[in-house]
Automatic annotation (TrEMBL):
Keyword field: Ribonucleoprotein, Ribosomal protein, RNA-binding, rRNA-binding
Highest classification ranks of the organism: Bacteria, Pseudomonadati, Pseudomonadota, Alphaproteobacteria, Hyphomicrobiales
Listed Gene3D superfamilies: Ribosomal protein L22/L17
Pfam families named in the record: Ribosomal_L22
Name of protein: Large ribosomal subunit protein uL22
Source organism (scientific name): Roseiarcus fermentans
Amino acid sequence: MSKQANPRRLADNEAKATVRMLRVSPQKLNLLAQLIRGKKVATALADLEFSRKRISVEVKKALESAIANAENNHELDVDDLVVAQAWVGKDMVMKRFSPRARGRAGRIEKPFANITIVVREVAADEAKAA
């Protein structure tokens, strides 16, 4: 008599990917999340490819992972996928100290962040409107 499986939290036409412990502040990562939110995945991948932000490489990997999850795990059509949600969360913060003048110490915080990307399959006519 085993425990019942967790119900799926996403809709049947959605897939998700999460990347944790990205070495960037959540504020900077949120700029990239805003860049791709609501776009078709092909456009979002192109935007991330040519973005000058350092962390865009990791965000692009996360988006590709969400696309692969949609294709392989949920049998969704890649051409009809849209970035439905992209949100950023705080992770741990490394605290370091740097010597300052007159025997004092300055605190340096090195933040980490998470990003979660949800892609949704929409009908072809709805995708053109978005």
